[in-house]
Amino acid sequence: MNLHMKGRVLSIITVLFLTSNVFAQLAKGDRILAWQVDMAEDNNYDLAFANANAACMESVHLFTTWNSVEPTQGNYDASFITNFFDIMNLYYPATGTDVELQLAPVNTNVLEVPSDLSGLNLDDPILINQFKSLLDTVFAHIPDVTLSALNIGNESDIYFGSDVNAYNQFKVFLDSVGPYAKQLYFNLHGTDLKIGTTLTFHGLLDPVQGPLCATLNANLDIIATTYYPLNPDFTMENPSVVAGDFASLVAAYPSTSTPIYLVECGYASSATCNSSEALQAQFYQEVFAAWDAHYDNIKYLTVFKTNDWSQADVDQLALYYGITNVEFTEYLRTLGVRNWDGVGTKKLAYDQILCEVADRNWCSATCPNASLNEAESLEEPVCYPNPAKNTIRLSITDPEIEGIYVSDLTGREQNVGIRMENSSSIIIDVSSLPSASYFIKTPASSVPFIKLP
Prior knowledge:
Strand order of the largest sheet: 1-2-3-5-6-7-8-9
CATH topology of the largest domain: TIM Barrel
CATH architecture of the largest domain: Alpha-Beta Barrel
Low-confidence stretches: 1-23, 370-379
Mean pLDDT: 89
Strand content: 15-25%
CATH superfamily of the largest domain: Glycosidases
Number of helices: 14
Largest sheet: 8 strands, parallel, barrel
Distance between the termini: 31 Å
Number of domains: 2
Shape: elongated
């Protein structure tokens, strides 16, 4: 996970979260949409996979550390190999899904090499040769898997900081093991494998770390990065930063011959992180618009992720990273576009993604409000202010309030006062509602809004 991740809440939030964008979208072309697939509380991977598949997933993001496969030099964990690589080889080819695989000798702020090799520098020949042996084992167990890319290392810039020697040593490592992996893959498939190393968006653009990251990327096939618009305290920046962030990334890596792969792209929905489901949905709307604008450079993007993690998982991750403040744990916990509870009830962002891919005809995905989008004679209602503390005005085209009500995210109707203000708007008293995300339901639309404390 990206550790370089309080955005302000907009005074007015667009009601286009679950509808088509006003501007024309760019066709899919050769871009690939991937997903990080996680299970909900029901422990049903097939259902979580189906949810991602319904949203045009072509590739899946899979990750493991080196020492999970090989705890000590030459001693491989047979159970892990069976449950991870052997199942990978059975499941994804059968479903026609490619894999972006991350093998991490370094994961964010943790060194993850076999324990008896942890004292060696990353450019030590013993360590390099042992990683090549790891690659032999891995490819022997996934002969049928089509890889979108192999990324060696995950967010290593966090671990390396500004240590020039550490970057130089890792570059030697990458320049040695990368071609070896490419040859193994070519021997199996007769096609080239894209090799990258995953670095953070912050690291790629940082004045000090950026040039060091560029040295790592110099001989690689892709620019792999994670993208979470975070403030230093793990609150979310406003989604409006996406356009500028994507432009800055492309300006730093303008060559279309080395495409940019956003191998993790996500936005937390927790109010603790100054966010909400509505802002998370807006984030994905902004992401697809910015992706259109940089079609030539950005060819791959992973939605991170299908479902929220459980609190138990998040607590374990917090201990792993050594960061236990509530903003960090809530950030991790609410990255999913579906909730953890039960079978994974969807958030606004999931429908937003469906609408984005449907608008671009990426697959057979259907925007939940497609019939509304296509009704040319219907003007979409607007509510303001949004977020609101006490009252909301809703613009309407039909001077009737029958059939208009407020619901929570589960669909339960809320007890609020609704009265006509004039022929084109109504007043809704939301002062008694708890702080949360809600919908204003009309006979033909569903308008999201946020109730402030």
